[in-house]
Amino acid sequence: MTKIDKTDIENIKLITKATKLGNLSKIRIKKGEYEIEVSSESSNLVNPISNLIPKKDQNASEEKEVVEEINEENVVKSPMVGVAYLSPDPNTPAYVKIGQHVKAGDTLLLIEAMKTFNEIKAPKSGVIKKIVALNSQPVEFGDHLIIFE
């Protein structure tokens, strides 16, 4: 049996986001025993991710369902459209990791736009709670990149 990995789920999220932004008619992905079809013809898109998570994981997430409010001051958003990079090059560790304390002005990541690498700096000092941006993945203006505690 073919298993769905984290990369598959992230790719599905990107496809789902693309269907919301554009007039996509259909995308079909087949991997092993499962097949996903995404279409923007209907305004009621079914969340394909919920159908792919095994039932035991769905039950576990329902038991732990906690609504977490995120203060907008703690979110670093993308100031531009481009490609996010978590490190300066593939052989170098990421600028930041979860749980790391950063000072205002520290580089968090890079966004490449029009062949120019733009440093995204920490707007304040704090601890990194979550890194939302994926390495080498496109980001849109206003997308959440990093969340502080």
What labels would you give this structure?
single chain; 149 residues; alpha+beta; OB fold (Dihydrolipoamide Acetyltransferase, E2P); 4-stranded antiparallel β-sheet; 20% helix
Structure description:
This protein has 149 residues and is an alpha+beta fold. It folds into two domains: 6-63; 72-148, RNA polymerase II/Efflux pump adaptor protein, barrel-sandwich hybrid domain (OB fold (Dihydrolipoamide Acetyltransferase, E2P)), CATH 2.40.50.100. Helices cover 20% and strands 31% of the residues. The protein has three helices and ten strands, in the order H-E-E-H-H-E-E-E-E-E-E-E-E. The strands form three sheets. It has a four-stranded antiparallel sheet with strand order 3-10-8-5, with no helix packed on it. A four-stranded antiparallel sheet has the order 7-6-4-9, with no helix packed on it. A hairpin with a 2-residue loop joins strand 6 and strand 7. The relative contact order is 0.16. Mean pLDDT is 77; it is low at 42-47.
Report the average pLDDT across residues: 77
Give the helix/strand class.
alpha+beta
Weakly predicted, low-confidence segments: 42-47
Rounded to an integer, what's the Rg over CA atoms? 18 Å
- Main beta-sheet annotation: 4 strands, antiparallel
CATH topology of the largest domain: OB fold (Dihydrolipoamide Acetyltransferase, E2P)
In helices, the fraction of residues equals: 10-25%
Output the CATH class name of the largest domain: Mainly Beta
Put simply, the count of helices is 3
